[in-house]
Amino acid sequence: QVQLVESGGGLVQDGGSLRLSCAASGRTFSTYSMGWFRQAPGKEREFVAGISWTGGTPYYGDVVKGRFSFTRDNAKNTVYLQMDSLKPEDTAVYYCAAGQLSGRRAVMSAKTYNYWGQGTQVTVAA
What we know:
The chain has one helix spanning 104-107; strands spanning 4-7, 10-13, 18-24, 33-39, 46-51, 59-60, 68-73, 78-83, 92-99, 115-116, 120-125. By secondary structure, the protein is mostly beta strands. Strands 2, 4, 5, 6, 9, 10 and 11 form a 7-stranded mixed sheet that branches. A hairpin with a 7-residue loop joins strand 5 and strand 6. The longest helix has 4 residues, at 104-107.
């Protein structure tokens, strides 16, 4: 079992920055692939960023490439999402997810993750 707790959401102005954190419980954190997804009202859950448990370069959704940065600290059982140049269209609930999966397609799919956090609201004001 893995429990995930997100933090760092809030209200920010257009062009501002936020840093989300996701703290995970459990002793086998390093064996889980991790991802960030978001869901805006009336829309499907969307992949934002993620990384396979095997390491390597994080994957990013097309709409956040160049603006968001995903990092992982296995010593702290925590992943981070640095969000810069935020836009009103980035407004959504952001979810952290963990799963025993690998490969680009699996990391980018919400259907392959086993565990989800409760979400944190990010609101970008125009």
